[in-house]
Design brief:
Layout: H1 8-28, H2 32-50, E1 55-56, E2 69-71, E3 74-79, H3 84-99, E4 109-114, E5 141-143, H4 148-152, H5 156-169, E6 185-186, H6 187-191, H7 204-208, H8 216-227, E7 237-241, H9 247-262, E8 265-270, H10 277-287, E9 292-297, H11 303-311, E10 319-326, H12 330-336, H13 341-344, E11 349-351, H14 358-378, H15 390-395, H16 399-407, H17 421-432, H18 438-451, H19 467-470, E12 475-476, E13 483-484, H20 488-500, H21 503-510, H22 514-527, H23 538-547, H24 551-558, H25 561-573, H26 579-592, H27 597-606, H28 611-616, H29 621-631, H30 637-645, H31 649-658, H32 661-669, H33 674-683, H34 686-694, H35 698-711, H36 713-722, H37 725-730, H38 737-748, H39 758-765, H40 768-774, H41 780-793, H42 795-804, H43 807-814, H44 820-833, H45 835-848, H46 852-855, H47 864-874, H48 878-886, H49 890-899, H50 902-912, H51 917-927, H52 932-937, H53 943-956, H54 958-967, H55 970-977, H56 984-994, H57 999-1010, H58 1013-1020, H59 1024-1037, H60 1042-1050, H61 1057-1067
Parallel strand pairs: 3-4, 4-5, 7-10, 7-11, 8-9, 9-10
Antiparallel strand pairs: 1-2, 2-3, 6-8, 12-13
Helix pairs in contact: 1-2, 1-5, 1-9, 2-5, 8-9, 17-20, 18-20, 18-22, 22-24, 23-26, 26-27, 26-29, 29-32, 32-35, 35-36, 35-38, 38-39, 38-41, 41-42, 41-44, 43-45, 44-45, 44-47, 47-50, 49-50, 50-51, 50-53, 53-54, 53-56, 55-57, 56-59, 59-61
InterPro entries: P-loop_NTPase (IPR027417), SMEK_dom (IPR047740)
Organism: Hyunsoonleella pacifica
Protein name: SMEK domain-containing protein
Length: about 1100
């Protein structure tokens, strides 16, 4: 059975995972005593696993050299450092101590127990490393959280002994789910089977009976994603997909896998629009300390809460958040949320919506049917299939509908091919609706319309008890009778079954429009409540329908007078109405009902006497107000100015004082009216500005100072001067390499105010091992960018950092880069920072022949070939360049030359020529057989591309280039130069670049262009310094026109002639003319 904590093996894995995460977390905070304390625990664990008596070496001699545990001739080192450098250094030290006779016995083997969730090192990690026959990489490295293979091999008695020892040492309870929670629940309780045989979600039976089907490709992507989840990088993860495509089930499958692999404890939270962060925080504190994966489902209902958890996840020791969301379109996300969860977690996301092809859906149906058939056979049924392709049309990618359809299989000993949509709808209707009176059926359908959008409705009359309520069709959640009606997706199917069996009414009254039917029921629900008693739930109707991106129903709601009145009354009278809800409503209106925006803003804010209390109810009031101002079209100036006129200075000052400090600068940034912006900034005291900056987290302080410089420049210098770099450095408990280097780089820009570098002080104050550790979890692009930023702050620090950072790990990260041109750029940046490190990486590249497979791939881009060859030659790897070309598929290289843009083609040939001149000349000859002039004449081919092509062509063969250049009609260059989107400076750069290809031809082109007024008009439109720099380029081509050009430019109105002549002298003291 899955998720059973009583399972002995599961308990052992859980305990080992708890030790691992606790030690790793503690080690990052320099609590090394925890790692040392665990040596005794692991001595007992290893003694049980290997059936040998391992003892702590420190019992023999304090600070016993190089090893921690031993038994007879076998030595063990226990370490929380999971890099290969540590192992290599330890083996060398171990061998040295053996040779010096420092041990009291003869050791034949050293093994390593790494306290880590890591599974293994790369296959080539220990290549060319002398192990002195004391160590075997494949046999002598164990990772604490992955001892399952060894433990599974133990007999039951040994497993029980190990389980009892661990749980006693860790003081664990017999059931990790004994805690009672307010918002979250344990996965076992979520998966618990119900008495109802129609299950609207995945249950334990689906796991136990192996009813879940995933294709080989799908299974691999899920497990690959699961293996990226660990407790050391403090990242959150995201699963997205269309409704009813099995997102939650995939999350549960991942938790099942991780529980079996590393012993995590899984929990589940169904998010609602009214989920309380403070209540959730209590639950998180209750589970804090257990190695937990918390599935947070339906985050599209509250992105702000999800964003808060992402930003604050480092507070929750050993908890990994696994978010699940319905797929949200990019346009909707951009408008709806300033902090885009999808973008934030893009690198840690499993996108199920990509599995949307017809072939995939067909394979899914066949797989699910096969699983169900096996299950029915075990239940002594005789399942008959027949043709099943009709299921694709019936289910319409809805796995719940497919599941309900298969539940009908064999009920009447029927063939699956005979079960159609009518049978499903009749079965649902008969089971859940038919036996009730008509008026109760209509009530059920009305509530279904509400809960199909996850709206936890209140019954209009809570006193009247429906028959269906007594029979458990929907469930009473609390004394206020807020009812949860099954699952939203199930409610949708129940509505479908009702409409299918009431086709005539559906067609005549609703024109077969399901959204119109739903709206009619939602509207009826609103109208049945007295106007003065509109329920709090009215806000959830608008927000949840908006989150579902249902444009049709939202448009109808915003155009319905009673629905709008209900919304206005909620914000005018409810004590629960707050600024977050207000912002969400405005966001939804902007997306789905833009024509209603002015009316909504007037009703909710300008004509609302309760608006001050709403905005002051949370610490985001000022930010929400500025967001609404930003949302109003610039055309509507009257409404934009009227919005802030609603509030006096005293109210605005209260909003400022009550605002979260990090929201103040963001709020002002959103105000695109200089007068209003000045009004707000004038209300902020110097003391408040200091509070804003000092209370800002380290990751955001650089950005906040940058924004402050734009908003209130006079305040920046004293505030920056007041910052204590030591306090800032000490506030960094957890290092994120990208955020650290970005913040330090931002602080560096303010150092013109200081004699000492605050950025440098902070950098050197942070413990270097933390920065080295953070590099493990940074992407290679972030590492490269960070190195460039660190070089400007403290180059010596960077060099020392690279010396301490494993070149092997950096090499592994480089290999994650998809394109070789990006790879080469990263490698050059690393070389700038540390030539020693780049040489080590180059050695690894040569040893592994890393680029051979990529170079011979049909998918290689033309731009990649010259980028990597030039990079390798620049770094001195000429011999490897030769080997790469020698082992390459020449047809692929030639194909890239012939299929790429001309300027890319000649760059490829140019990069090959120093390595293999014969091959370069051969490819060039083939290339010149193409109709290149027609390609260059293409209207989309830019002047800068022509320049790039000719310059690189000349490097391949000067004579051929000059002859080719001569053949091109000057009209091609003139047309491209005189285009409206080509600047004067671009024309000058082109002429300057190509003059070496053929000076006579270039002068001729210049003379032709000079004859056009458009060229002179372009010249008059640019700034003096740009003009002079460009003129310098033209003068190098042909000085006959220089004097006339200067006279033409300086004789314009409002031109400072003295400034022009002064600039000319600065740029070039001698233009070959007399200026005075």
């Amino acid at each position: 059975m899955l998720y059973k904590s009583q399972n002995i093996l599961s308990d052992i894995l859980f305990a080992l995972s708890l030790i691992t995460t606790d030690v790793k977390y503690g080690t990052k905070l320099k609590f090394n005593d925890k790692a040392e304390a665990c040596e005794g625990i692991f001595a007992r664990i290893l003694s049980i696993i290997f059936d040998k008596g391992f003892t702590n070496c420190n019992l023999i001699k304090q600070d016993y050299p190089a090893i921690d545990l031993h038994s007879d001739s076998i030595a063990f080192q226990v370490s929380a450092q999971d890099n290969s450098t540590k192992i290599k250094d330890s083996i060398n030290l171990f061998k040295k101590n053996i040779d010096l006779g420092k041990y009291d016995r003869k050791y034949s083997k050293i093994k390593f127990l790494i306290i880590s969730h890591k599974e293994k090192f790369g296959p080539k990690t220990f290549e060319n490393f002398d192990t002195y026959n004391l160590f075997s990489p494949n046999e002598d490295v164990y990772f604490s959280a992955n001892l399952g293979k060894q433990i599974k091999a133990l007999n039951p008695a040994k497993q029980s002994e190990l389980r009892d020892f661990l749980w006693f040492e860790l003081n664990l309870e017999s059931d990790v789910y004994d805690n009672r929670f307010n918002e979250i629940q344990s996965v076992p309780s979520y998966l618990e089977n119900t008495s109802n045989d129609i299950k609207a979600r995945t249950t334990q039976v689906d796991f136990d009976q192996n009813l879940l089907y995933y294709s080989e490709k799908e299974e691999k992507s899920i497990l690959d994603f699961a293996n990226t989840i660990n407790f050391e990088n403090k990242l959150s993860y995201l699963i997205t997909g269309h409704p009813t495509t099995g997102k939650t089930t995939v999350a549960l499958k991942i938790c099942d896998y991780l529980q079996n692999q590393i012993g995590i404890v899984p929990f589940y939270l169904q998010l609602k629009t009214n989920t309380s962060y403070s209540t959730l925080l209590k639950d998180l504190k209750a589970i804090n300390g257990l190695p937990t994966v918390l599935i947070i489902d339906d985050i599209h209902l509250d992105f702000e809460l999800a964003n808060r958890l992402i930003k604050e996840n480092s507070k929750f020791k050993n908890i990994v958040f696994l978010f699940v969301s319905r797929h949200i379109s990019t346009d909707f996300r951009k408008t709806f949320e300033l902090d885009d969860v999808f973008e934030t977690l893009r690198s840690n996301c499993l996108s199920l919506e990509r599995n949307n092809s017809k072939d995939f859906q067909r394979d899914k149906i066949l797989g699910v049917v096969a699983k169900r058939s096996d299950f029915l056979l075990k239940q002594n049924y005789n399942p008959r299939q027949g043709g099943i392709l009709h299921l694709e049309h019936i289910s319409k990618n809805n796995l719940l509908k497919l599941k309900l359809l298969l539940n009908n299989w064999c009920k009447a000993d029927d063939v699956l091919s005979n079960i159609d949509e009518e049978i499903i709808h009749k079965d649902l209707f008969n089971k859940f609706l038919k036996k009730y009176p008509k008026e109760e059926i209509l009530e059920i359908i009305k509530y279904s319309c509400l809960y199909s959008f996850n709206i936890p409705f209140e019954k209009v009359d809570p006193i009247i008890e429906l028959t269906t309520e007594r029979e458990g069709l929907f469930y009473t959640q609390d004394v206020e009778l807020k009812s949860l009606f099954m699952q939203p997706s199930f409610c949708d199917l129940l509505i479908d079954s009702y409409l299918f069996l009431n086709q005539r009414v559906f067609k005549t009254e609703f024109n077969k429009d399901k959204n119109l039917f739903k709206f009619k029921n939602i509207k009826q629900y609103i109208e049945e409540i007295k106007i003065e008693q509109y329920p709090e739930i009215i806000i959830e109707i608008f927000l949840n329908v908006g989150s579902a991106e249902n444009y049709d129903i939202l448009r109808l709601l915003f155009n319905d007078s009673k629905s709008k009145l209900a919304l206005f009354n909620y914000f005018k009278s409810s004590e629960n109405a707050n600024s977050t809800q207000l912002k969400k409503i405005i966001q939804i209106v902007k997306i789905f009902a833009k024509s209603n925006l002015n009316e909504i803003i007037n009703g909710l804010i300008i004509n609302n006497k309760n608006i001050n209390q709403i905005l002051l109810r949370e610490n985001t009031g000022l930010f929400v107000l500025s967001y609404i101002h930003y949302s109003i079209s610039p055309i509507n100036r009257l409404l934009k100015s009227k919005l802030y006129e609603t509030f006096n200075d005293e109210t605005l000052r209260k909003l400022i004082d009550s605002s979260a400090n990090h929201k103040v600068t963001l709020a002002i940034q959103n105000i695109n009216d200089s007068k209003i912006r000045k009004r707000i900034t004038d209300l902020i005291s110097q003391q408040k500005w200091e509070e804003i900056i000092k209370e800002t987290s380290f990751d955001l302080i650089g950005n906040s100072l940058t924004e402050l410089r734009k908003l209130s420049p006079k305040n920046v210098k004293p505030i920056f001067a007041s910052l204590d770099p030591i306090l800032l450095a000490d506030s960094v408990k957890w290092v994120d390499f990208y955020k650290l280097t970005k913040t330090l780089s931002e602080l560096k820009t303010f150092e013109k105010y200081e004699t000492n570098s605050k950025a440098k002080v902070i950098l050197n104050r942070i413990e270097k091992w933390k920065i080295v550790e953070s590099l493990k979890y940074a992407k290679i692009q972030q590492i490269s960018q960070g190195f460039a930023q660190l070089a400007k702050i403290d180059n010596l620090f960077l060099q020392d950092l690279l010396e301490n950072y494993s070149a092997e790990l950096l090499f592994e990260k480089l290999n994650e880069i998809k394109f070789l041109d990006e790879y080469s750029l990263m490698l050059i940046n690393i070389n700038k920072a540390s030539k020693t490190t780049s040489l080590k990486i180059l050695k690894l590249i040569e040893q592994n022949h890393s680029f051979k497979e990529r170079f011979n791939s049909k998918g290689i881009k033309g731009r990649e070939i010259p980028a990597i060859l030039n990079c390798l030659r620049k770094l001195g790897a000429n011999s490897y360049c030769s080997k790469l070309i020698e082992d390459s598929n020449k047809d692929i290289i030639e194909g890239r030359v012939l299929s790429s843009l001309p300027e890319v083609s000649v760059r490829i040939i140019k990069s090959i020529k120093p390595i293999n001149e014969h091959l370069a000349d051969k490819i060039l000859s083939t290339f010149l057989e193409l109709d290149l002039i027609t390609k260059l004449d293409n209207k989309n081919y830019k002047l800068s591309q022509v320049s790039d092509f000719l310059v690189n062509f000349s490097h391949c063969d000067e004579k051929l280039c000059s002859d080719f250049f001569e053949k091109i009609n000057n009209l091609i260059f003139i047309k491209k130069s005189l285009k409206s989107n080509v600047s004067f400076a671009e024309i000058c750069t082109f002429l300057s670049n190509v003059k070496n290809c053929n000076i006579a031809k270039t002068r001729d082109i210049y003379s032709n262009i000079y004859a056009h007024n458009v060229f002179h008009k372009k010249a008059r439109e640019i700034q003096p310094r740009v003009f002079v720099n460009s003129l310098h380029q033209l003068n190098s081509v042909d000085n006959r026109f220089t004097v006339r050009f200067i006279n033409s430019y300086v004789n314009q109105k409002n031109i400072n002639k003295e400034l022009i002549f002064k600039t000319i002298k600065e740029v070039n003291k001698d233009f070959g003319i007399k200026l005075n």
